[in-house]
Design goal:
363 residues, mainly alpha, two-stranded antiparallel sheet, 14 helices, 67% helix
């Protein structure tokens, strides 16, 4: 068994999450916890949005089972409960964006002041041994948390996409934790990975199931963003087990780049960054002929490739400022490519000429 990874806890979280989704399926209809097809949405049937609640239940039960607790974990669990509660209310009543941001800020402050988890040192990003944020540490951590949460919310627009990208990021963070010697965090990550996999069993399209049975909902995408933010801060800001913050950017390149570019473009167009639209990367890929699951699989492969390549580059002592510059170039390249939607669609249409993963078009 890999030291730090707990397969028993992961399997328990998987089973509890999957069972909870099954139990919630009839309840979702009665409570109207459903995502109804309308407007820009691609699905054809009302679909439960109970993924976030089930993942939370799976994680909490598994954490109790393994009897691992700390002030940091307690704060994370409380922050997660808050976000999921607000997210479920949002799924029911469609909250205005500023109420969602307020809840995300409150959750960030809980993990900061109760859990003691925050971004304090950013020197390694620029190749410096130390560069403390000082009094800016708290607002920077809140801003970063809100950014990651909304990046995951914005990318959650195709069956399996947010879940697969989130799982890829958590698996790589778990590997980084084990490599850095942080076995406790790796064990907790195994619980989170198991719960997310239990959700994906219901969410991803399969040859015998042409549509998702459940969605993350706003509660689930917010929870997934909070998980990734909390783990990233724990891993990169721990003096005993240092991992460079630059790596965190490359473990979640698709949602972060997509989010940053869309914010810039929507502001240029005089629109709210939180406005809806079919201008995300998965929408462009679908216009180029990719099925939802095929797009999710290829974007996940790209994400895993980025994380592994940058991880190896760090092992080979490639300067961190160069890796940061490469990430900024990726953002600039995506911005330039998508300035013309037809050009972006043509780019992905050319990539689609590779052998299809599913001849029936389910992928």
């Amino acid at each position: 068994m890999i030291r730090g990874f707990d397969p028993t806890a992961a399997l328990l979280a998987l089973a509890i999450t999957s069972l909870t989704l099954w139990l919630l399926e009839p309840v979702a209809g009665r409570l109207n916890l459903l995502d109804h097809p309308a407007g820009r949405k691609d699905h054809e049937h009302p679909t439960p949005v109970t993924g976030g609640l089930a993942i939370l239940v799976g994680c909490l039960v598994a954490f109790l089972f393994v009897q691992t607790s700390s002030q940091s974990l307690q704060a994370f669990c409380v922050a997660a409960v808050l976000l999921v509660a607000v997210g479920l209310y949002d799924d029911l009543h469609d909250l205005r964006w500023y109420w969602r941001v307020l809840a995300q800020s409150a959750s960030a402050l809980i993990i900061i002041f109760w859990g003691g988890v925050q971004v304090e040192q950013i020197g390694p990003v620029f190749g410096l041994s130390e560069l403390s944020l000082g009094w800016l540490s708290v607002p920077f951590t809140v801003f970063a948390t809100i950014g990651i949460v909304n990046a995951m919310n914005m990318i959650d627009g195709a069956d399996g996409l947010a879940g697969l990208l989130g799982l890829a990021a958590l698996v790589m963070l778990c590997a980084a934790s084990i490599y850095a010697g942080n076995e406790l965090l790796a064990m907790r990550l195994s619980v989170l990975c198991g719960a997310l996999l239990g959700f994906l069993i219901w969410n991803i399209r399969l040859p015998w199931r042409p549509r998702a049975k459940v969605f993350l909902g706003n509660a689930g995408s917010a929870l997934l963003g909070l998980v990734i933010a909390w783990v990233s801060f724990r891993l990169t800001q721990n003096d005993g087990h240092p991992v460079n913050p630059v790596l965190a950017l490359w473990l979640l390149p698709v949602p972060v780049v997509d989010c940053l570019v869309l914010i810039v473009r929507r502001l240029q167009e005089g629109r709210s960054p939180f406005s809806a639209g079919r201008d995300h990367i998965h929408h462009i890929m679908q216009d180029a002929g990719f099925g939802p699951t095929r797009a999710a699989v290829w974007l996940t492969i790209f994400s895993l490739s980025c994380g592994l390549l940058v991880g190896q580059a760090m092992r080979l002592d490639v300067p961190n400022p160069l890796l940061l510059a490469a990430f900024l170039l990726l953002c600039a390249g995506w911005y330039l490519l998508t300035r013309n939607r037809e050009r972006a669609v043509a780019f992905f249409r050319a990539l689609r000429r590779a052998p299809r993963l599913d001849p029936e078009g389910l992928l």
